[in-house]
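Many introductory courses stop at the sequence. We go one step further.
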Amino acid sequence: MLRTPGAWAFLLPGFAARQPFAMLTIGIVLLVQHTTGSYGTAGAVSAVTGVSMALFAPQSGKLSDRFGQGAVLLPGVIVHSASGTLLAVLALAHAPLWALLAVAVPTGASVPQVGPMVRARWAATLPAGSPLLQTAAAFESVTDEFTFVIGPVLATALATGVHPAAGLLSEAVLTLAGGLLFAAQRRTAPVPARAVPGGRERRASALTVPGVRVLAVAFLGIGAVFGGMQVSMTAFTEEIGRPGINGLLYGTFAAGNMLAGLACGAVAWKSGPKRRMLVGYTALTLATSMLWAAHAVPLLCGLGLLVGLTIAPALITGYTLVESLVPAAVRTEAFTWLTGAVALGQAAAATAAGRLADGIGASAGFTVPLVGTGLALVTLAALRERLAPRPSEVVAARGDGTGRGSGIGHREPVAVD
């Protein structure tokens, strides 16, 4: 896969550009909690950021499909860096909550969707129907989680060792630098739908595909794990008087996700992705059911690692499934709906876990991932038949006229049972 011509040209800048995203939520939580003394307030500000991202990310993906990645990315990183810096300044100035929430909206709305953009480049670069697409999905999950191994540790170290705002300010600077570098890699970018000679422009949203909606619900539950664990781990380390190990705890969780992603990419699966999704999501729900009982650092580390090991299969399989459900002309948008669902679930979980941690304690906050994944699992099991690619969608995708690298549009239905 890595020998694919042009791959390294977007992989390295893509890694640099997505790194700050792993620092954003924890940077906000650490700064706002420091200036207000409340996890509930910190969770609310980070939640507004996540909701804003969830609402605007699909629109960013749709615009990227239509006008090109660079046209969307360049103004986005500038707005994000400016609003993130303003949020840090307001927090340090002890501005009222409404001001923090107001600035959190553009901060979240402008989060660059580099992960979905990189995934779209893989789908456009690899041959249609290539088995390397599954490997690419696993590779991207590993890359995402590697950033979450580094990001929280870096943000926590900066916030606790340098200055409470250092984590969030560093995120703003890295977003600007990495985003501009990635946007400059134009040769590997998918051809915008409007630029294809003779191609007809698609206006239907990827969310009109039933399977995408089901996967979005599943990814909401995955977001609940990320948000609930970030806030609850922060509260837990504060309760035991060791806030400096928060990044280590969350890094262990992310490391489990990364290791499982490596394994998923190396395995030649014989079962279909729909079955793998159900099995993997069941394992994730069972793993989260034990978090609330962790009262010691070694136990929480072990459970965090276990939860991380079960998240990767669900994430990777979900991204693999969505590629078989949508045509090439709405590919980036489909990926951003899933990314946005994770952000929305993360936001809701951060708010709920923050309130529970303030009122009852960190252990109560750890129940949020269980509730989120449990509800999503019920939905996924009940609507699993919608994850099968429909012949009409495949036919429509073939005729979308997207030209080079359409990949998804030319693929036959995959085995899903």
